[in-house]
Each structure stands twice: as structure tokens, then as C-alpha cells.
Amino acid sequence: MSRRDVYVTLRQMRDHGVEALEMVRGRSRSDLNTDRMRALALVRLLEVIGEAAVRIPAEDRNRFAAIPWSQIIGLRNRLIHGYDEVDLEIVWQILSAELPDLVEELDRLLKSKP
């Protein structure tokens, strides 16, 4: 089995994060209650970011220690396995307060690619 290019996976994480941020731009927390398709799409984008994080080998996670790997993977697990108990308040907090920093850090890593 061939090893994935870690930078391809980081780019996928960044791209899905950017897409999620674009979907919440100009929106409010209450939009997640009234726009089910948007809420589902945003949850899915967060799931994909977490799934991509799972694919990053442990040695690379250690190398890119500024990324909160365990929290990203934990969120993915919670969204996938606790799909019937997703708290949109927490999802909004992640989208508005944490995802911008993650996208910024991923951009930094991608620009410093050797």
C-alpha cells in the first residue's frame, strides 16, 4: 500500500474548511436552525476534515503539532457516531471561533511545504 502525500490531505482539510467558512459568511447561529440543508452540509464538511485528519500518519501529526489533531478527530467521531445528538451550538462555536484558526494554520503549513 502506498503512502498518501500528507500535503494533499492537508490541502483537502484546508479546502473543506474554507468551504465551510464561506457557507457561514454573513450568516448567524439561528440560520443553522432554519436552514437544515446548510446545517447538514456544514456538519458533513467538519466530518470530512476529521476523516482527513485520521489519515495523517502519527509522525506527521507530531511534526505538525500546532494542529489540534485529537480534537479534530474527536469531533469527527462525535459527529459520525452521535449523529442523532449533534449540538448545533457547539458546531457554530467551532465554525466561528476555531475553524478560522485551523484554516490559517493549514495555509501556513501548505506554504512552507518543502
Give a brief rundown of this model.
By secondary structure, this protein is an all-alpha fold.
Describe the structure.
There is one protein chain. The chain is mostly helical and 114 residues long. Helix content is 75%, strand content 0%. It has six helices and no strands. The protein is globular. The model has no long low-confidence stretch (mean pLDDT 95).
- Average pLDDT number: 95
Poorly predicted residue ranges: none
What best-fitting shape do the alpha-carbon axes yield?
A: globular
Percent helix: over 70%
Order of helices and strands: HHHHHH
Report the portion of residues in β strands. Answer: under 5%
* The number of domains: 1
- Helix count from the secondary structure assignment: 6
Task: Give me the Rg, rounded.
Answer: 14 Å
Broad structural category: mainly alpha
Termini gap: 24 Å
Sketch the major β-sheet: none
